[in-house]
Amino acid sequence: MTQTLDRLQAALESALGEDLLALKRERGEITVTVAAGRYLDVAQRLRDGAALRFEQLIDLCGLDYSGYKNQPWDGPRYAVVSHLLSQTHNCRLRLKVFAPDDDMPLVPSLNEVWASANWFEREAFDMYGIIFDGHLDLRRILTDYGFIGHPMRKDFPVSGHVEMRYDAQAQRVIYQPVTIEPREITPRVVREDNYGGLH
After folding, report:
1. Are 56 and 84 in contact (CB under 8 A)?
2. Which is more confidently placed, 17 or 183?
3. Which structural domain, as residue segments, surrounds residue 25?
4. What is the CATH number of the domain that holds 115?
């Protein structure tokens, strides 16, 4: 495993050069971070480079780093992480890019490099509001068309903004403001002397 990672790391450093902002080896895999402006070009080199040949995009997801590890985060808030597979070399790679603008998170679409990015990018757009420049059909995929906001952002309220229910009088589904009152749930502590048969 170590030899495979050593070979992969050497191939990545050679192929990506200055485009490689960070390379991290952890849990038997490598994560590389690149700049948003070089993201598409790097993806094409990862797919087409003879020493790399990452033919398959397995997964792509958005991340919200605000409050990362329950601490203040000093850096761009939104990131996109892609999980790649090289069947030729039997190895995996994690590709990370940060959106430079927190107010309008924007990164290039990988759809022209790996067609499987299509729905993954739509999901990241829907859940996090990350815009994928060049995506041909960037629209919501999991939430309703009229949904407001992006539910996986850490500042999105847990109960949401609106709820939907069937109204028997109107005989249709209606939308209304959330009627659930926020509350803090504190677990009940059992403090009986003979609890569990212990004396």
Report:
1. yes
2. 17
3. 2-144
4. 3.30.460.80
